[in-house]
């Protein structure tokens, strides 16, 4: 009942209060756009651990409500969003998995959080656009098109690899800062600078300022300049001065990450072929060490457009360097910054874009209101002199955001992900999924004769 009351308060704040502030007639005259998004997800986890003293397997439920208002005046738009989030029946003694992360943030089985999720002014005049305030940032998605297929590939292959909103978690991530864009017919130049806020798993203090600054920019050659092909160059600066970073690495992290991305979709026979490339090089200071690392992603896909279920087959590889000489003064482990990793390196979230080689195969099927996704990942470490890394960046001031498993074998294991998406109406959607990780035999030495993990989820979304 507490969770339901929490979401009703959120809805009341947006649906009722704005009409009182503007007046009913004035609200209608200026046409404010009001929205409500509700999400409920139940997860069941069986992690690779057999210690009797820990909770495993375990399950829990996440509930989130976001109410929003957009008020347009001339060239400006004011956007505000309130978020109410809660968790039900978190494990209070788990060893691994998101249940542990959620519980550890607030040390409650049923934590709740109410926050101002977004509050910014957005403007556009001529070829210039800007936003300032509490904003979302999706690195790689600065330019979207009328072409739904093109946008979908950007979302599943490029967007948020280094800086993202992490909205798969119940609290997500946002930033206090601003953006500036220069938009012409053929190019888009984008600049941003912001302070990262807590969130993700952090029920105790979501959207409080962290001592992390992130900024950068990109130049995008739009897809019609070269037929149905987008090319983009970018650079991201990351400065992490949290006390926990200085205590562990002896100094702050100051990293510069330039890179490129390319996406092309072309007709071929009765279908379409798509090609994605993405790469980044990283320099700067990793604590007291110098940083020198890189990462590469390449993907190839083909969709059969005139075939039953319109099968779309894709293959790819993601590679990120690891440390090959821990004793010298250079850190060669690629640092994943502040990404949304859930959609990239297996739905079990056991890997990050650090010391990783991930070869994967994807199959997407569509039938009316149903969509199916099957993915298979082959995971190995890029360097056996380094460790296994997982996480999605800083969630709070006292947690690094990335964890290490002291595993130094090449082969880590394979993961199979299955998901079904049901979208019968514009306001209702649901999804169901199952994932299994089959770890290598060497993992049994770490997890007490067990190396497998499974995850089942069921999610419902309502949007008004």
Strand content: over 45%
Structural class category: mainly beta
| Domain module count | 1
Distance between the termini: 22 Å
**Structure annotation, total helices:** 6
CATH architectural category: Beta Barrel
> CATH fold name, please?
Porin
Total count of strands: 21
What is the average per-residue confidence, as pLDDT, rounded to a whole number? 92
* Percent helix range: 10-25%
pLDDT under 50 segments (min length 5)? 1-29
CATH class: Mainly Beta
Biggest beta-sheet profile: 18 strands, antiparallel, barrel
- Radius of gyration, whole Å: 22 Å
Q: Encode the helix/strand succession as letters.
A: HHHEEEHEEHEEEEHEEEEEEEEEEEE
Shape: globular
Give the SSE layout.
Blueprint lengths: L1 H14 L1 H6 L1 H7 L2 E14 L11 E16 L2 E13 L9 H9 L5 E14 L2 E8 L12 H10 L17 E9 L3 E11 L11 E18 L2 E12 L2 H7 L3 E16 L2 E16 L2 E16 L7 E9 L9 E2 L24 E12 L2 E11 L7 E4 L10 E4 L5 E12 L5 E12 L12 E12 L1
Parallel strand pairs: 12-14
Antiparallel strand pairs: 1-2, 1-21, 2-3, 3-4, 4-5, 5-6, 6-7, 7-8, 8-9, 9-10, 10-11, 11-12, 12-13, 13-15, 15-16, 16-19, 17-18, 19-20, 20-21
Structural commentary:
Helices cover 11% and strands 52% of the residues. The chain contains 6 helices and 21 strands. The protein is globular, with a radius of gyration of 22 Å.
Index terms:
two-stranded antiparallel sheet; 18-stranded antiparallel beta barrel; Porin; 11% helix; single chain; mainly beta; 6 helices; 464 residues; 52% strand; disordered N terminus; 21 strands
